[in-house]
Specification:
With 320 residues, the chain is of the alpha+beta class. The chain has one domain: PPM-type phosphatase domain (Phosphatase 2c, domain 1). Helix content is 35%, strand content 19%. The protein contains ten helices and ten strands. The strands form two sheets. It has a five-stranded antiparallel β-sheet with strand order 1-10-9-6-7. Strands 2-3-4-5-8 form a five-stranded antiparallel β-sheet, with helices on one face. Helix 7 crosses helix 8.
C-alpha cells in the first residue's frame, strides 16, 4: 500500500487539530473537535495534543498487532491517552478534548476499516460507484441545534457567541445513546464505530478525509466522490485542500454555505492498493525536515521507539 498525505490548518493563528499518518499497512486520520475561543475544556494540553497522541497510539496498535480488531486498537489508544493526562486535567469536564477517527488496514488479503464520527472514508471499488463510509449521527444530532448559528454571518461576534452556545449544547449528546460517538475518555466509544472489511483486490484506492477536506463534496456540493477520487489520484491531497480553500474564501461569511468555521483544518490521505495503480512520482522536499518542521511526526517516532524498546526488553513468546 502506498500513501499520499496532506494536512493544513484552517488558520495560521491556531494549531492544526487534525492528524494523519501511515505505516506500511495502516493509515489513520483524526480530526480533533476544536473548542471555540473562550470555551473551557478542563485540559491543559489542548485538542491538537489529544489528536496527535491518540493518532500515534492508534497507528501503533493497528500496525504492531494486526490480529487485534481495529475497534480494540482504538480502545487501547483511548485508554493510554486518558492515562497520560488523568492526573493533570479534569477529564470529567464536558469540553474535554475529543476526536473523530478513521483507520484503514491492509491485512493479508483483506482491507479493514474503522470510521468513528464525521470524517469520511471513500473506497474506489472496481465494480461500481465509490463506496462512502461516514458516521452521520453527529449531523443528525446537530441539525436542530445549529439553526441559530447558521443564520448568522460567519466570523461576526454574534456568530461566535452562537457557536459557543452550540458547542456547549452539543456536549450533552456526546457519547450517549441517541446522540453521537467520538473518541474521548471512554474506550467503550470505540465499539460504536462503523467497521467492515472487503477483499483488497476489489479496491483500487481509498481516501480518508477530515470534514474540512470532504466539505468540497458534502457541504459545498461543488464536485462528487468520483471526481474527487480522480483528483486525489492525479494531483494529490494538497490540490484537493487548495480547492477547498478557494471555495471557502469565495464565501467568507457563510452566506452560501453556513458553517461553524470559515476555514477549517483540512487533511486527506489517498492510498493505492499494491498491484492496482502505479505510485505517484516522488517529490523531493525543498528543505531537509527539522525537529520543528516534523511537528506531530516526532511524537509518532518517539512512540514507535518506546514500543520497540519495550519489546526488546520484554520479548513475547511467538504465536503458536
Amino acid at each position: 500500500m502506498r500513501v499520499w498525505l496532506a494536512s493544513a490548518p484552517g488558520s495560521t493563528e491556531r494549531l492544526n487539530e487534525d492528524f494523519v499518518a501511515a505505516s506500511n499497512d495502516v493509515v489513520v486520520l483524526l480530526d480533533g473537535a476544536g473548542t471555540p475561543t473562550g470555551t473551557e475544556s478542563g485540559c491543559s494540553h489542548g485538542v491538537a495534543w489529544y489528536a496527535r497522541q491518540l493518532g500515534a497510539q492508534l497507528l501503533i496498535e493497528a500496525s504492531v498487532t494486526p490480529r487485534r480488531p481495529l475497534t480494540e486498537a482504538l480502545a487501547v489508544g483511548i485508554n493510554r491517552v486518558r492515562d497520560m493526562h488523568a492526573d493533570t486535567c479534569d477529564l470529567t469536564h464536558p469540553g474535554t478534548p475529543s476526536a473523530t477517527a478513521i483507520a484503514v488496514r491492509r491485512n493479508g488479503r483483506d482491507l479493514e476499516y474503522l470510521v468513528l464520527a464525521d470524517s469520511v472514508l471513500v473506497l474506489d471499488v472496481l465494480d461500481g460507484a465509490p463506496t462512502v463510509v461516514t458516521d452521520d449521527r453527529l449531523a443528525q444530532t446537530s441539525r436542530t441545534l445549529r439553526s441559530e448559528m447558521d443564520a448568522l454571518p460567519t466570523g461576526s461576534p454574534e456568530h461566535a457567541k452562537a457557536l459557543r452556545s452550540y458547542t456547549e449544547s452539543l456536549a450533552s449528546y456526546r457519547n450517549t445513546e441517541g446522540g453521537f460517538w467520538v473518541a474521548n475518555t471512554d474506550p467503550a466509544a470505540a465499539t460504536h464505530a462503523l467497521t467492515g472489511s472487503l477483499p483488497a483486490d476489489t479496491v483500487r484506492a481509498a481516501a480518508l478525509l477530515s470534514d474540512g477536506a470532504s466539505r468540497l463534496v458534502d457541504r459545498f456540493g461543488l464536485t462528487d466522490w468520483t471526481d474527487t477520487l480522480k483528483l486525489l489520484g492525479e494531483e494529490g491531497p494538497a490540490e484537493l485542500i487548495r480547492r477547498v480553500r478557494v471555495a471557502e474564501d469565495s464565501d467568507p461569511h457563510g452566506e452560501r454555505w453556513p458553517r461553524g468555521k470559515a476555514n477549517d483544518d483540512a487533511s486527506a490521505a489517498y492510498c493505492w492498493l499494491s498491484g492496482i495503480r502505479s505510485d505517484p512520482e516522488p517529490v523531493a522536499p525543498s528543505v531537509a525536515p527539522t525537529a520543528k518542521s516534523k511537528g506531530p511526526f516526532l511524537e509518532l517516532e518517539r512512540a514507535f521507539d518506546l514500543v520497540r524498546s519495550r519489546r526488546d526488553s520484554n520479548p513475547q513468546p511467538s504465536d503458536p
